[in-house]
Amino acid sequence: MLDGFILLSIGLNLNAVDWTPAGLWLAVIASGLYHGLNPGMGWPLAVSAGLMERNSRALFAALWPLSVGHLLAVLLVILPFALLVAFVEWQRQIQIGASFLVIGFGIFRLVNQRHPRALARIRPTQLGLWSFAVAIAHGAGLMLVPIYLGLCRPDLDKSHQVAGALIHANLGMAVLVSVAHTLAMIAAGGCSAWLVYRYLGLKFVSRSWFNLDVTWAVSLILVGTIALVFGLAD
């Protein structure tokens, strides 16, 4: 249901003329909650750490590298777009290209649902590296690109004089979007891990485990399609 909420928030605000910042920030937070609730983003590993150490502090300690890895993966995807948006006169083309990129990756994830073998070679002690690799492999940052581009639509003249200021502003926005998304992600994942560890138990996970790979891929395709429609209408 959360992915539908994200898409609804984006759909209501991806307007070629009136971009509502509050709605777009809501989409950033909602996508973070969606990613955090997804067990594939690592919260079961935090539960495992707590159970092995028989200490809840080990659970919360595991959340830090998971959040850092996710944050770095999102920044790696968003920062190049922060630089590209400085080319104001090409903004429409950048938005359309980004939309096709998100759609293409979503189709790829839908067709090929196998997890990269490289992920299996990362040791459980390397949670930060694992979180970074998983977020990259699943396109977590790509889902934020259309939202980010909406927040960075400049109302400036198309001149080279504003390029420097625009780059600075967009880099700051990229970091802010990534941090807000990651905080929401780790909050949702941490709450899920704590509930399973303290109250629900592993039986709940084994009985209620669900695979979000298909939902994730469809979400990417829909987000990219919505962004493409409004990009072409601009």
Radius of gyration: 18 Å
Total separate domains: 1
Poorly predicted spans = 1-19, 155-163
Largest sheet: none
Helix % is over 70%
Provide a count of the helices: 11
Return the structural class. mainly alpha
Q: Note the overall shape.
A: elongated
Order of helices and strands: HHHHHHHHHHH
Average pLDDT reading:
77
Please render the helix and strand layout as text.
Blueprint: H1 2-13, H2 21-37, H3 43-53, H4 56-84, H5 91-111, H6 117-120, H7 127-138, H8 145-151, H9 163-200, H10 202-208, H11 213-233
Helix pairs in contact: 1-2, 1-11, 2-8, 2-9, 3-4, 3-9, 4-7, 4-9, 5-11
Describe the fold and architecture.
Keywords: Membrane, Transmembrane, Transmembrane helix. The chain crosses the membrane at residues 20-37, 58-88, 94-111, 132-151, 171-197, 209-233. By secondary structure, the chain is mainly alpha-helical. It is 76% helix and 0% strand. It has one domain (2-8, 22-233). Helix 1 (2-13) runs parallel beside helix 11 (213-233), helix 3 packs antiparallel against helix 4 and helix 3 (43-53) crosses helix 9. Mean pLDDT is 77; it is low at 1-19 and 155-163.
